[in-house]
């Protein structure tokens, strides 16, 4: 059984409010955002590995006004190189997947990813991470 980190990217600040056409554009915004919030240079290596897995399932939550309920969808992502996700690739793909549902709610701030501590019920060979959201 593969061991995955319990927490990923707790040191990265981000807000899910926009879609980004390219990863380069996303990286520029990510760096500027972190430097504006923290007031210090953001030393972000876009090639730094976040997760050694070719696939990942992400679960997040949002309030649905129509259903008047909390919705907790999940989705699967595949690494571009079929081996591992860089920090940038992972956050870029997650951003573009969730921003539409999160941009108008309070909990649209990124606070990292947390590993589900049991086997993924839908795909036992794919790690399941919860998107940690803050307001």
Write the layout of secondary structure elements.
Elements: E1 7-8, E2 14-15, H1 23-38, E3 49-51, E4 55-59, E5 62-64, E6 69-71, E7 74-78, E8 85-86, H2 87-102, E9 109-115, E10 128-134
Parallel strand pairs: 4-10
Antiparallel strand pairs: 1-9, 2-9, 3-8, 4-7, 5-6, 9-10
Give an overview in words.
- This protein is α+β, with helices and mostly antiparallel strands.
- It has one domain.
- It has helices at 23-38, 87-102, and strands at 7-8, 14-15, 49-51, 55-59, 62-64, 69-71, 74-78, 85-86, 109-115, 128-134.
- The strands form 3 sheets. Strands 1, 2, 4, 7, 9 and 10 form a 6-stranded mixed β-sheet that branches. A two-stranded antiparallel sheet has the order 3-8. A two-stranded antiparallel ribbon has the order 5-6.
- A hairpin with a 4-residue loop joins strand 5 and strand 6.
- The mean pLDDT is 94.
Biggest β-sheet, characterized? 6 strands, mixed
Average pLDDT figure: 94
Tell me the domain tally.
1
Backbone shape: globular
Spans with pLDDT under 50 lasting ≥5 residues? none
SSE class: alpha+beta
Separation of the first and last Cα atoms: 35 Å
Strand fraction: 25-35%
Helical content stands at 10-25%
Enumerate how many helices there are, as a single number: 2
* Sequence of secondary-structure elements: EEHEEEEEEHEE
Radius of gyration: 15 Å
- Give me the count of strands: 10
